[in-house]
Structure formats: C-alpha cells, structure tokens
Amino acid sequence: MLRGISRFSQQSVAKRALYRSGNQCVRGNWGTRCLATNSSDNFLSTTNAAYIDEMYEAWQKDPTSVHVSWNAYFKNMGNAGIPASSAFVAPPTLVSHHTGAQIPQDMVMGASGTMDQGILTHLKVQLLCRAYQVRGHQKAHIDPLQISFGDDKSKPLPKELTLEHYGFTERDLDREITLGPGILPRFTREGKKAMTLREIIAALEKLYCSSYGIEYIHIPSRAQCDWLRERIEIPQPYHYTIDQKRQILDRLTWATSFETFLSTKFPNDKRFGLEGLEGVVPGIKTLIDKSVELGVEDVVLGMAHRGRLNVLSNVVRKPNESIFSEFQGSAAPEEYEGSGDVKYHLGMNYQRPTTSGKYVNLSLVANPSHLESQDPVVLGRTRAIMFAKNDLDKYQKAMGVLLHGDAAFAAQGVVYETMGFSHLPDYSSGGTIHIITNNQIGFTTDPRFARSTPYPSDIAKAIDAPIFHVNANDVEALTFIFNLAAEWRATFHTDAIIDVVGWRKHGHNETDQPSFTQPLMYQKISKQKSVIDVYTEKLISEGSFTKKDIDEHKQWVWGLFEKAFEKAKDYEPTSREWLTADWANFKSPKELATEILPHEPTVVQQEKLKEIGKIISSWPEDFEVHRNLKRILTNRGKSIEKGEGIDWSTGEALALGSLATEGYHIRVSGEDVERGTFSQRHAVLHDQKSERTYTPLQHLSDKQANFTICNSSLSEYGCMGFEYGYSLTSPDFLVMWEAQFGDFANTGQVIIDQFLAGGEAKWKQRSGLVLSLPHGYDGQGPEHSSGRLERFLQMANEDPRYFPSEEKLQRQHQDCNFQVVYPTTPANLFHILRRQQHRQFRKPLILFFSKQLLRHPLARSKLSDFSDNGFQWIIEDVEHGKSIASKEETKRLVIMSGQVYTALHKKRESLGDKNTAFLKVEQLHPFPFAQLRDSLNSYPNLEDIVFCQEEPLNMGSWAYAAPRLGTVLKETDKYKDFEVRFAGRNPSGAVAAGSKALHAAEEEAFLKEVFGQ
C-alpha cells in the first residue's frame, strides 16, 4: 500500500481513500478490493487499490506525474487523522487538463464531499483498463472457427468490458483522457500524453482482444504481472522485418507441405496429422531459437501422437526419407531386437543448429498412447540433464517442452501431478513450456462434455502460470507469444502455458469420419482456409512478397520432399533415430549380443566398508540427534565394526555409499524415503534444536559422486515417471524410487506397463531404474500388504516352456525386459544394488523388500558376505547338519520367496521337524533355471516338493513359478515325474485379510499344509 506509512495506517488510509463509512476491505493479489455495504458510490466501492498504489509511487517520484487533484489528495493524506472526504480539499487553484483554465475549488469538491469529475473519469478509465487486463481474453478472437470463446456470439460479453458499466455513452468516446499510472503507461513513455477514450479502447482491444488473449492477473507476484504488462501493453506489440517474415513463411511452408505431402502419398494411412494447427511447428522453432539465445543448450520434448511426425521432421530434424520408409513398411534398424512401435510413438535425439549460430540438443521422448504419461518423464530427464551440466542453481541450460491435447490436458490427472513438481526442491526443472494443441474436440467428445472449465488450461492457475491463448491462424501473433513464453521462462524459471486454438481437419485419425458426431463443426472446417493460405494472402496484400515468390518456394520445398521419398526405398535407419537418449561410450545391445559378459564385481573390501560404516553411524559434534536415533546409529556402526549382525538398512547404506565413492551418482526418491516409511533408513538426520539436517552419505569423501535422497510429493504416477525420465540420461546414475507401501505403486501402473516393462522392446530405450516396493503379509489389511508381485511376473518375457540352452543361460539378464527380485538378506540387497551399476548393460530392477525383515534376527548378514560373495539367485538351507538332517536324509523340500521363510522357520522349529529343508528363490525373473536344477539334484531322496507363498493362490509368484518349476524338474536326475505341491492362501478378490485374527488363522492353515498336518 502507500509507501512510507506504517502498515496499519496504510490500510486505514486505503480504506479512507476508497470508501465511505460501512464499507469492508478485503486483501487480494493486487492490493485491496472493496465490498460496499452502505455506499451510494458503487464505482468507488469496487475500485482496486493497486492503481492508487501505482499513482502514489509515481507521485513520490514526481508530483506532476499525476492528476493535480490526486497531487492535492496525496499531500493531504500525509496528515494523519484527516477524514477521506477532507483529504480531497484542493489547492487554491487547479488547472484543467483540457482547457488550461483555472478551476474553482468548489468544482473539485462539492459541499457534500463528492469527488471531482475529472478524478472520477480517470478512475473509471483505470478500471476499464483493469477490466481488459483481467477479462480481455474472454473477448479475444482466438478461435479460427469463430464458434468458441470470445467468438461465441451466444455468450454475452463481460459487463466490465462495456461502456454502460462505467456510465459512459457514445458522447464520451471522444473525450480526451490524460494517460498516467494505470492507463497504458508504455504509451506515455513512448510519447503519448493523452488519448481519447475511443483511442484507449481501441488500443486495449488490440492488446488484449485481438488474435491472442492473455491470463495473468491471477499470478500473486506483482513483479511478474508488471513484467508481462511491460511486454504486452506496447503500442505495436510485434513488428517483423521482411527477413523475419521470410523465416516465418519458410517454416510454415515446411510444416504445411509436410502434411499435404503425406496425405498425397499415403492417403489411407493413419498419421495423426496436424492440419488446422500447423502454426505450432514454426512456433516451437521460434521458442527453441529464443531459448537458445538465452542460454538453453538442451531441449527435451514430450508429446502425444497428433503432430508428432511433423515435429520429428521439422523440429527435431529426423530425416524425411526415414519417415517415408516407415510408411512404406521398411524394417526397423538392423541392430534392433524387439517389438518396435508405430511411427507416431517413436522418440529421437539430435543436435541441430539454430538461427543464432549455436547448436541445441533436442530429445523427443518416446511414449505410448496413454495420454500425458510422458509429462513426468520429460521433466525427470530435463532435471537429470541440469544435474549433469551442474546447472541446478540457475536452470539455464536445459528446458522441458510439453505438447498436450486440449481434452487430455484438462482430464488426465498426471498433468496436475506433474505440474506439482514445479517448485519442489529436488524436482524443479526451472519451468516447463506447455503447448496445448487445442483442436476443440477429443476423439468425438465436445469440450462441454470433456471439462468443467471454460478453457482446457484453467488447471494451470493452480501453479500461478501465465496462460497465453492464441489463434492458430495468426502465425505472426503465434510467433510473438512463443517468444514471450521463452523470455518468461528464462526470466522467472516457472511454467508458462500456450493454448493454441485451431481445429482438426480430419477425424481422430485420417480414416475416421468426424461428421458422424460433429456435423456443424465440420461444416465450418470444410470452409476454412489453411493457415498457409491465410498468411500468404496477408503477405501479398501488404506487399511483403509476391505470389510468384511464395509459389516458387513452395515448389522448391515440395521437390525436396519428392527427393526424400525416392531415397526412402533404400534408406537404412540408424539407432539414433529411435533413442530418446543416446548413451555415448556405452555398448549397445547389438554390440553386446555376441559377448559373454564377465561376472559383475559387486564385492567391496572390508576396510572400505568399515570406513563407510563409521560415517553412516556418526554425526557432527554440534548436531543434536534424537536420543533414540543415537542408539540406532551407534548399533549400526558396531555391527559393521564387529562384522556380524548387519541389518537391512545398513546393507543398503553400504551399497549406496560404496557406489557413490566409485563415482556413480545416486538418487533415491519417494514418499518419506529420507527417514523411511518404517523408520528404518534414517538417511537424513534432523537436529533436535534447529531446522538443520545432515546426510551422512553426502560426506563420504571429497571425490565422491553426488548422493541425493529426497521425499517426494504424494504422487506415484508422476514421481515414478519422473525418476524413469531421470534414469534415461546416463547409465552412471543409479536412480531408485520407493513406494510408501508396495500396494500404492499401482497408481503408477502406466509407467510400469508401458515404460519399464516394454520401453526397451518398443523404443530401444534402456533404463536402470530401481523400484523399491515394500511387500509382505503382517495382518495390516488389504491396502498395506502386497506390492502386487504377480503383476510384474506376468509381464516377464522369459519363456517358461523350455529350459534355456547354455548360451541363453549366459544371456538371461541381457535378454530380460526387467529383473524381479525379493531378497531376504542384507548382503543380497547390497549385491543386487551394486550389480545394477557394475555391468555393461542396464535393466530396470523391481526390488521387493519385506517390512518384517527390516529388523528380523533371521535377516542379518556378516561383513564377509559383503566382501567375499556376490548376489545369490537362490539360497539353500544353512541348517543342514545343525538343526536339521543332511541333504541325503531330507525328505521334503519347500521352495519359497521372501518373508514367508520366517514363519516356516518358526513352524519347523516348533514341530521339531528334521527332514524338511527350505530353498529361498531370491530372484524370480530372470528365473534361476540352472541353479534350481543343480540344487534339486543335490537332494537325492526327496519325497515331497512344495511351493509355499503367503499370498492367495491367484496372486504372488505361484502362477509364474509353477510352469518354470515343471520345466526345471524335467531336467533333474530323479524328479522328472514329480509335481510341485502348492501351499498358501485360498484364492481371493481382496489382497489380504482385514483382521489380524483372520490373518493369523490363514497363516496357520497353510503352514500346516506345508508340513502335511
């Protein structure tokens, strides 16, 4: 409010300035908004105090910059206690801005204290300007079809944009208004001192209601709003030179000709063309050029299928002969092994020059048809690039750009989940540019049935992003908006939304008939001129180019398409055309195909482990750790020093710490991972007397790689996608996402199904992402028991019908789509995490862990297990010759995975059973065919083979393991005709029992079944 006055007096001054007694004042984004409760002057009762703030600031610098009556008002307001009505007592003489004549005092303030009409008019015009800033977009001509938004004639104009609302008539239009604070200040700085009301309205119409409309008043930052106004309220918002128009025309010609060429050569193919929104392509190129000028080196793009081929061709620069060869049915790259994907789902990375002479690295993320699922992937990849470039403090070198359909942007929840990362400390990527390719229809659904808001972009107001609506047929306005968005992002490092409103020439695809459901819309579309025709007519009419010039250029572009089409028959694609990220100096699957890879060196010397152990069990001297945590950390250090009794969390910390000292960047994220959902990890210590934190794994050595662990937002879909994107950037990043409970990972099922399980087969895209999923039945009910092990195993790509040949056994990991493990010892956890990095390829790792085993005495390891052994696919019973008989005397073998081992162990002990042995399968996929065969052969006298799980029959690993166990048995010496017996819970629709008592009863029942009771 008014500067130089105390906060309380500021508020009272504002109230006195604007209201009579009985009015109420409410704080808002732009100052004080008033609600009249007893006032005859409704105009004053709705005045926004932001403009008075502006006038007061201007008056402080130069008293002559405001109307003379306001000069008198501000002078008088300095006298505390003067009533608002008295504050308007004018000086002895006032000079009329219109005639220069002196105005008697009683003409400024009447006997009743009414306001001078000059001030009143000024305030009204201020409010009118404000109305255009707030609501001008509702009148803007942003729809080329002229059926929606401001062009929808069935909807009345906002009353604030009408003359009548302010009491103006036609006679007032030629009244001259002195410009100043709140009334087109940029016009004043460019020489205009006064304008007629008619001219002011015309200027406002041009600035806020032309072929673009802008929403920004919802942004709470005054500085950001002022920044936008400075660039919007310019007498000539944009003016392009002949060369700049030539560039716009050239880019538009390529974009439109590409669609026309494809429709000519492949009329019956689906291509999800961009007709009706081709202006987006030159817009994106403008955005990239401007951003590169401002420091960006990498741009990561994400988009759905519509317009993807055009973007690949004209923005990312995928060779056109490659695109045409895909239409002609040419094979995938020779080195490609897998299913491949349709052409409008593929990604690519490429380095290309920009108009500034600088080069930019462009990466288009491959993605499935699950709309918006690529959004968090793009942001994760962008963040990882920033990390790799040491740019996380400035957010200058990398930028994410997302293209959305209008129906998807408004309806897909992951859009909001992704936007929620905007300002999170370990997720922010310095602002994302969102481009809505708004064709005003879903598949066959009208917008009024697809969203509850006027615009698809309204959700973006939740993150205070500016929203630019622009008519797809005005390519110069579109260029201006894309430039403005680039400058905004570079200045404030926050998101910006560009809503490009156009149409869809064909149906959902080129073979669809849209008139079945949208007859009136498609009657309009059939009469629409193409954006290239609209622009060429404009250029010819203004004399910028001749028709001959334009036609010759179009023919030249078409000729290049024809040449590419001819070359397509013999074109041989390369892997770079498919990869979202090209891991330089890292062997490709083809290069590894003929190699027998060495054993992964996952062991670490004990001296090194003890060094790490001291650090992860200590804290600074001036740091007050919670008293209970002191005991936990002290015991952690003792277990390592003694070399025995090492628990689960300590094993994990040793793995991550050792990898960090070897130069691998570690990132662990998820809900509550810093402490750990089960209070087990304690990776970040909190000072009990301050807000200070300390992360031991960040203090291993001066040469260690970065270790990041961060709590995430409560979004599994968004966060899992983000971490997947992060993992794509470098094979030297170990990225782990952990679910709060394994059950909750199911809201990220799209990322699991479409990216993790099939990403390499479809797109050649490799990832080493680790999903850490708590799993295990402890009587906590159906929502806190299962990580849905069966779902991951169902997607495993290894054939259960055939025992692998020796060659295939060597390649089990190279050929699998992902790994699924359920380890039961801290040492095995240690080795599986280290194995992720110490190999020549990358595969996602689905890591189940038991809540019970975090502290169970059976889940302890010796230090020698970390330094002398590697990961064990299976773990045989260690009690032979101790509490149970030898292998030769064993009659029953129970095969299982995970924590059910502890219940079986306890039951066997209580029964005094000496002839039953246990075999733990630690890795389920790839399946341990050879290891199980050899283990079974080491038991010469088995009479019963049981597979036990705690999950219901229709869940868990039984359905996956049963056919594979049958295949293994056929390869054994003595058990070819054996059948494996199942012991577990009965089939169920719910994951687990809801009561502890029922849980215990079910467990006791299947334990008895195991031991034949």
Describe this structure in words.
By secondary structure, the chain is of the alpha/beta class. It has five domains: 7-115, no CATH class; 122-232, Orthogonal Bundle (Helix Hairpins); 242-576, Rossmann fold, CATH 3.40.50.970; 606-867, Rossmann fold (3-Layer(aba) Sandwich); 875-1010, Rossmann fold. The chain contains 38 helices and 28 strands. The chain has an eight-stranded mixed beta sheet. Helix 15 packs across helix 27 and helix 24 packs antiparallel against helix 25 (627-642). The protein is elongated, with a radius of gyration of 35 Å. Mean pLDDT is 87; it is low at 1-48, 79-86 and 88-113.
Feature tags:
alpha/beta; Rossmann fold; eight-stranded mixed β-sheet; 1013 residues; elongated; seven-stranded mixed β-sheet; Helix Hairpins; 38 helices; 5 domains; disordered N terminus
Give the SSE map:
Elements: H1 7-18, E1 24-28, E2 31-35, H2 42-45, H3 49-61, H4 68-77, H5 84-87, E3 94-95, E4 102-103, H6 105-108, H7 117-135, E5 176-178, H8 185-189, E6 194-196, H9 197-208, E7 212-215, H10 222-232, H11 242-265, H12 280-293, E8 298-303, H13 308-314, H14 320-327, E9 348-353, E10 359-364, H15 374-388, E11 398-405, H16 406-411, H17 413-419, E12 432-438, H18 447-450, E13 467-471, H19 475-492, E14 496-501, H20 519-526, H21 531-542, H22 547-567, H23 589-592, H24 606-616, H25 627-642, H26 648-661, E15 665-670, E16 685-686, E17 693-694, E18 707-711, H27 716-727, E19 733-738, H28 749-756, H29 759-763, E20 770-775, H30 789-794, H31 806-810, H32 812-815, E21 819-821, H33 826-837, E22 845-850, H34 863-868, E23 874-876, E24 892-896, H35 900-911, E25 916-921, E26 923-925, H36 929-937, E27 944-952, H37 958-969, E28 981-985, H38 996-1010
Parallel strand pairs: 8-10, 8-11, 11-12, 12-14, 13-14, 15-18, 15-19, 19-20, 20-22, 21-22, 24-25, 24-27, 27-28
Antiparallel strand pairs: 1-2, 3-4, 5-6, 7-13, 9-10, 16-17, 21-26, 23-25
